[in-house]
Amino acid sequence: LLLKLKVEYKQITGQDYKAGCPPPENLPVPDNGPSAEDATEEDEVNPWSVTTTNAKGVDYDKLILRFGSSKIEKELVDRIEKVSGQKPHRFLRRGIFFSHRDMHQVLDAYEKHKSFYLYTGRGPSSEAMHVGHLIPFIFTKWLQDVFDIPLVIQLTDDEKYLWKDLSVEECHRFAVENAKDIIACGFDINKTFIFSDLDYMGSSPQFYRNVVKVQKHVTFNQVKGIFGFTDSDCIGKISFPAIQAAPSFSNSFPHIFGERKDIQCLIPCAIDQDPYFRMTRDVAPRIGYPKPALLHSTFFPALQGAQTKMSASDANSSIFLTDSAKQIKNKINKHAFSGGKDTVEEHRQFGGNAEVDVSFMYLTFFLEDDEQLEKIRQDYTSGALLTGELKKILIETLQPMIATHQERRKQVTEELVKQFMTPRPLNFNF
Ligand SMILES: *[C@@H]1O[C@H](CO)[C@@H](O)[C@H](O)[C@H]1NC(C)=O
Ligand SMILES: *[C@@H]1O[C@H](CO)[C@@H](O)[C@H](O)[C@H]1NC(C)=O
Asked: Looking at the record, which segments are called Disordered (predicted)?
C-alpha cells in the first residue's frame, strides 16, 4: 500500500516522496510538450512514469499527435529495407518502433554517402535488468549491423544518483554491471563506445563544453514545462537534461569523430525519453549543430497488463535477465495477464482477446516468424488455442532466449568491459 501511495504521490506532484518534506504549494500541471492540452486524460507518459487505464496499452497514435513526431508508415519501413538491403527487423515490421523524427532525412543523406552515428542509453538504477530493457539494445545492434556505423551508449549513473536514494558508488557499480548485459547483446567492440557519465564527464573537455552550451540555452521555465520540475527539485535534476543532450553532438566524442560537429546522430529509444530530445532538437540549431533524428519504440508491458510498463522495482511485474527457466515459467503462469475466458468451454465458444493478452504481446516482441505469430493470433481469437497453451509458447520462446543471454553475459570479462568503456578511436568509413 505504501509503495502504491508513493507512486500516486509522484504522479500528482512530479517528485519522489520524501518523509518530512511537504509537497510544493503550487502543484505542477503535468505537461508533456507543446500540445499537452490534446492529451488523453488517461495516458501519462514521461521519463519517470508510464500509465494508462486502457488494457490495450497507451494510445500511440494520440501520443504521436501530442509529441509532434511522425508515424513510421509502411513506406518508411520499405525505404529502410531498400537503403539497408536487409529485411526490416521485426520491431519495424510490427510497429514496435512506431514513431520517428527526421528519419527520411537520415536516409536521404545516407544514400548520398553521408553517414550517421547511433546514440542510445540506459539509466542504471539497479543491477537487475529485465527483458524490456533489451528492446532498444536489440534494435540498436540491428541498426549498427545493417548500416555499419559507430554507436555511443550513455549510462546515466549521475541521473540515478540525483533521482534515487542511492550512493554515487552504487550508481557507478550498476552502470558497469549493466554494461555487461549490454555488451552481451553482441555489439561490435570496434564500433561501440559505452560510457558512464560519472567517468566521462570529468575526462572529456569537449563533452563538458557541449553540456554547458546546452545549459546556457535552456531556461528553468522550459525544463519546468517539459519535465515538470518544481522549485524544490535539486539543481542537479534541473541541469541534468543538458547531460543527456550532449551525446547528440558528434564533437562530444573527439576520440571518435575528431573536431567534426556535423555528423548526424540517430537515437533509438522508448518514446518516454522523447522530452529530452525535443529539448535537444530545439537547442541544436542555436548552438550550431544538426538536430538528432529519432526512432521511438512502444513500452514493454508489465506482466500484469499493458496499463504500465515493466518495472524492475516490482519483481512480479518483470522477467529479469537473471531469472532461471523455472522462474520464467512460474512468473508467466502466475502473473501474465490473460485475454482468455474464465472457463475452457467459454474460451472455446467465444475465443480469447489477443489485444489485451500480455503473453501474446510479448510474443510480438520476441517471436521472429511472422506467419507463426499470425497463426497464434487467429487460433487464440477463435478459441482453438487456450491460454495455458499460449503461455507455454511464450515460456518456450523466452527460456532459451534468456539462457543464451546469460551464457553470453558470463563470457563478458571485466577486461572486455574496460575496453568498451575506454575512450578510443572506432572503426568506420565516413
Ligand atoms: C576489431 O579490430 C581488430 C583489429 O583490427 C580485429 O582483430 C578484430 O577482429 C575486430 N573485432 C571485431 C569484432 O570485428
Ligand atoms: C509476488 O507474487 C508472489 C506469488 O504470487 C506473492 O506471494 C508476493 O506477495 C508478490 N509480491 C508482490 C510485491 O506483490
From this structure: 17-46
